Every structure is written in structure tokens, then in C-alpha cells.
Amino acid sequence: MLLSIWMSNQTITIGKISINAPAMNAAGPWAATKKQLELIYKSQSAAVVTKSFSLKPNPGNPKPNTYFEKDFSLNSVGLENNGADYFIDAVSNFKKTKPLIASLVGFETNEFKELLSKVNNSNFDLIELNLSCPNVKSEEPLGYSPQAVDDILKITTKLSKKPVSVKLPPYYSRQQINKVGTVLLNHNLNHVVLINTLPIATVVNKGKAAITPNDGIGGLGGRYIKPIGLAHVKIFSEHLKGKLPIVGVGGINTKKDITEYLDLGASAVQIGSAIENQGLKIFTELN
Ligand code: DHB
Fold first, then answer.
1. Helix/strand/coil (H, E, C) string of the chain?
2. How far is the CA of 1 from the centre of ligand 1 (A)?
3. Does 70 qualify as catalytic in the annotation?
4. What is the pTM of this model?
5. Dist. CA 52 → ligand 1 center (Å)
6. Atom 6 (ligand 1) nearest CA
7. pLDDT higher than threshold 60 for residue 28
8. What is the pLDDT of residue 7?
9. Ligand 1-lining residues (CB < 6 angstroms)
10. Closest Cα to residue 252, out of 224, 235, 274?
């Protein structure tokens, strides 16, 4: 049983990287500054995953753009980030005690090319290509178009000197999952991360929208999306048949949650909203 593997502190291999515990942080607002990345590096998180960053700094959406409750989170940060040079510098002195993962977003192909050439010459060990940010108003997340996924993976896997993983959004049918799954198998990927936040959600707090941007609409995370994350791991796992490792994310708070994800086909997991609620000490409990 998988549970016994991770409780005995064995090495978990995910494609070309190895981790010594099943849970790492998910990309998100808790991984946006040098200080935050340093704290994640020093914590029991199995890896350091940055907030998604772009080539140039991006101011993001007006605040408040995140909202957290015990059972869920809502965000429309709008890709606020300090840009590639900042993140590359932030991890430049980290020793290789755990994998350093760069979550990347690009607005157009040329930007991706420049971004990859910078990251190729950095201390990062792996790229997590974010094809699932829900908060760019005019653009549907790339992950919803199998053709767009194919196009971007062709470019990135060719240009990247680091192993490439891809983070996808939640889908609404098995058929959609199977189409995207087939595309993934045509590329030299390290693993797939499932799932990003559910793109269309809103929360009414004291009579008004809990977040300001996009008329209060943002991505839903936390415990509410665990059943959706689990189903994605299960269906992708059946489709990928062990040819591509899966990292599960969505609503994980406890060891039991981790076991459920591993039993359905994930090799490891990421923790998002629970970091905001419980702090990085959650990794001491989980790992
Ligand atoms: C943002 C939200 C996401 O879910 C994501 O994957 C990347 C960025 C954001 O709003 O900044």
C-alpha cells in the first residue's frame, strides 16, 4: 500500500526529480517573495514551488484579491508577480536539498522563449508550466484547448533545458480529460499537476463580493474542491496508464487526504489553501 511508502521516509521519484516526502507547496500567493521562498525552503515541504511568474513584473489585480475561510479559498490575484529576474535571484543561493520548481506563465510565445532562456540558466531544477490561471479576464485558460496545450508544449519542451511539468485546470467531462491526456503523452513531460483552482466562483461576504477584481469572480480552492481534484487524478491516471507521473492538488489538509490522492494514482501532492490557514508547520504534520 502506498501509505507505507511515504511513512517510511523513502525517496519518491517523479520522473527526473526525487523528493523525500509526499507533500510540497503548491504555487500560490504564499510563494511570491524571497522571504516566503526561504521559509518554504527551510520548512518540511518536499520541494519549493514558486508563485507563477512571468518574464516581466506584473502588478496584478486590485486588492482585496484573495479570500480565505476554513473550508475554501477564492482568488483573483491576476498574476501579480515580481518577474523572472526576481525569482531566479531569490533561489540562486539555495542548496540542492530539495527540488526548486519554477511555476511559469507566459502571455505570448516570444515571451515564453525569453522566459525559458532565463530559467535555463538558473538554479531551478524543474519547470511547472501553468496552463490554468483562471484570472486573466480576456483569456480562457490554455489548458482548455487541447490544440493550445499541444502548441505550447512543443515549444517549451524543445527550448527548456530543465524537465517540464504542466499544471492543468479542472475539466467538466471524461472526454475532455482524455483529449488533453492524449496530447500530454505526445510530449517529453516530467509529470502533470492536477488541478488548479475552479475558475468561476464568487463569495458574498457581509453583503458584497469578497474580492474586488473581475466583479468578484475568482478561482475556488481548498476543501471544497477535493472531490474534483481526486476525480481528475483518478481519470487522468486511468488514461495515462503510468506513462506520466501525476502530482495531485486540491483541498489537502490531512494525511488521510494525501492517502486518498496517492491511492487514486498520484505520486505526490501539493498543498495550497491549507498553507494560508495553518502556515508552513502543516508540512511537519503531513511529511
Ligand atoms: C493566479 C491564479 C492561479 O490559479 C494561477 O494558477 C496562477 C495565477 C493569479 O490570479 O495570480
1. CHHHHHHCCCCEEECCEEECCCEEECCCHHHCCHHHHHHHHHCCCCCEECCCECCCCECCCCCCCEEECCCCEEECCCCCECCHHHHHHHCCCCCCCCCEEEEECCCCHHHHHHHHHHHHCCCCCEEEEECCCCCCCCCCCHHHCHHHHHHHHHHHHHHCCCCEEEEECCCCCHHHHHHHHHHHHCCCCCEEEECCCEEEECCEECCEECCCHHHHCEEEECHHHHHHHHHHHHHHHHHHCCCCCEEEECCCCCHHHHHHHHHCCCCEEEECHHHHHHCCCHHHHHC
2. 34
3. no
4. 0.96
5. 7
6. 133
7. yes
8. 52
9. 52, 75-80, 130, 132-135, 196-197, 219
10. 274
Specify the residue with its C-alpha closest to ligand 1, atom 2.
Answer: 133
Which residue, chain included where needed, has cell 453583503?
207
Q: Is the pLDDT of residue 176 over 90?
A: yes
